[in-house]
Amino acid sequence: MNDQPTLSPKPSLAPSALPPDALRWHCPAESLPFDSTAQIEPVTGVIGQESAVESLRFGLEIDAPGQNIFVRGLIGTGRMTLIRRLLEEIRPTTEPPPDRCYVRNFAHPDRPRLITLPYGRGRAFQRRVEKLIRFITRDLATALSSESLRTRWSAIEKEGQRRIEAVVQPFDDALRQAGLTLVSIQAGPVVQSALFPLVDGKPVPPDEFDQLHAAGQVSDEDHARFHEQRDVYQDQLGEVTNKVAEIRREYGERLTTVREQAAGSLLRDVTRRIEADFPQPAVHDFLEEVIADVIAHRLDAAEGQPDPSRHYQVSVLLLHNGEANCPIIIENTPTMVNLLGSIDRRIGPRETSYSDHLMIRAGSLLRADGGFLIMEAREVLREPGAWKVLVRTLRTGKLEISPPDFGVPWLGQSLKPEPIDVNIKVILVGSADTYYILDSYDPDFPHLFKVLADFDSVIERDEKGAMGYGEVIARMVADEKLLPFSRTAIAALVEHGARIAARQGKLSARFGRLADIAREASYLARKGSREQVTGDDVRDAIRRTKQRADLPSRRFRELLADGTIRVQTTGRVIGQINGLAVLQAGPLTYGFPARITATIGPGTAGVVNIDTEAALSGAIHTKGFYILRGLLRHLLRTYHPLTYHASMVFEQSYGEVDGDSASGAEICCLLSALTDVPLRQDLAMTGAIDQHGHILPIGAVNEKIEGFFDTCNDLGLTGTQGVIIPKANAGDLMLRQDVVDAAKQGKFAVYAADTIHEALELFTGMAAGAPDAQGQYKEGTLLALAVERAFEYWVKASRTADSLVMEDEETGEPEQMESEPPPSLPA
Asked: In DSSP terms, which residues pair with 506 in a beta bridge?
């Protein structure tokens, strides 16, 4: 067996470098059919989202249960803009929402009664009831003092007095004949009747009469007669008193009835006119309760007692004025209170709080009744209780404005207003992750949000897409008073959109990011006293945007330059390779090289990922590592078990490592350690793998290439440096112009590999090899050498495992015995 591998004179599978023209797509400015955005009609909709528009239009126009809408897509794709403009365009023909009013429930004051009136009639009803209140508090007492009513009351009083006299007069005459008379005595708050003797025709109190008798001024005969007669007439007095009280009660009730009938008649004259204009049964019931309460408790209030007006007032939750347009409510802060509404509290006597029907406040769910409520899904989910309230309202069709019950006794009794029947179409705007979470964990969600409007993050990279960019910018110019954009500026924005999309034949539909670039480009052009924005302004804005957030990238390059971070961009090393990683800085992504090392020796542990063992490996990276182990078994088709102990790690990485884009580089590094074949350090690699050796596409390919280019540029370009990327990503390239220029000058290269064999040949300069029909590799190839080294490790492991320790039968001492050596490597 040779200690050094036999290199094939020429790699058979290594791909050639991509031509410089393939590293960046250019949008020719002359292909745009305008000179500047001043010649373009601003777009009124959203470009490139035909499927989403069709779904959204269907959801807005259909009237069926559960047809609420979830608008799914990335932030910045124009979702809110599209929804607003579609609603303005469609102008859904819905029934005008009714007015909702709350009034006092006199039977159950803690449960205010709901009155539903036609659109725009709530305020009129409130004003009519206010006039009724003014009549009660100001005019009712005067009306009850009319001449006709006083005449009736006087007649009743006289009749009652005659009946009383008819009862009292005979008794009074009998008393006078007996020398007695009836006198009323005030005893505290009570008036009592007592029998007094007459002396010289005048009533004398019994005590004084006894004193006169003792003084000799009253004879014994008169004194005895008084006491005798008083006992006789005392019983009759009780009967007479009862009869008089009954008569007074009877006629008092008649007076009260007449007064109440008069008050009721006066009030119904007023309420009858209200009911004629508001024929709803709930209005009739409320007005009848008002009349009953006035008659029972408030007649004295019309004469200066406490003001009853608060109990009778109408609380209109929403005032609809003007045209009956379909409500379109955008709730940016969907807290439970903002959605549901609230009930205020006031501090009453003894520092206790109270609430009534006038303190009920409407929320977004009621304001959107009969129309549309638009919200960000993640904002609803962030607010405690908001999602529960929303789902309950949509499921039941009833809005219950009830504040949380905190169980604090001194807060007083909570109100429970009568539920409101509402008809709302909710439009939730959210990401795909949010949609899948709701669909998985809330069983009500798929039944309540049956319409999905899917916004794509990209649009087609064609003439229509480029023209759409111009139309969007023209709209911004008109709305935000920006400078006009020249065709070169639009072309630069289109190229930046292609870079953001990072997909072959696609442009980014995330116009929020592009709008920020456009605003800064207009700022730079205006600052430079230019009349329109140029392509250089756009490119300068892009550079400035990235520069403001590139502190992590600059710090990495500084650490690289002073040797703190070790990355090698020249030479060859066994078991060491340059992988590529990325970091996020807000919406921007930066790439940088990551040194990966591997060591291997005999053993049975297999491949150990140090990052995983140190709990620094994310789930996707761990999965990629297991795929790597499967690929290794696929490549090394041995008839014996793979017995080795290998370790692999991202060097100088102290945070979590995730993603599988380094798995291609890892398998190359592991095979290098196994075969002792050194790898080129002037190459870096990015790409995931499957278990059959295909290199799979990854994200942020442009940023990763540029990250390694910057490192090579800082350490010195040699003309041999480059990056290996998945072939599937070749069409996604939109590299910086300086990288493209370096490729044109032969200083940097980008290779697109389809299989791990191609990558191995680029890294080693050695043919990777392919198995024949018997699964054997041709001698002199890298994988044949890997199989040979794997056999050597198995031999060593087998000899160690087969060394048995046995006892000598005679001495009892341990005796070493070895099994037969394993067979040699087959030819």
From this structure: 460
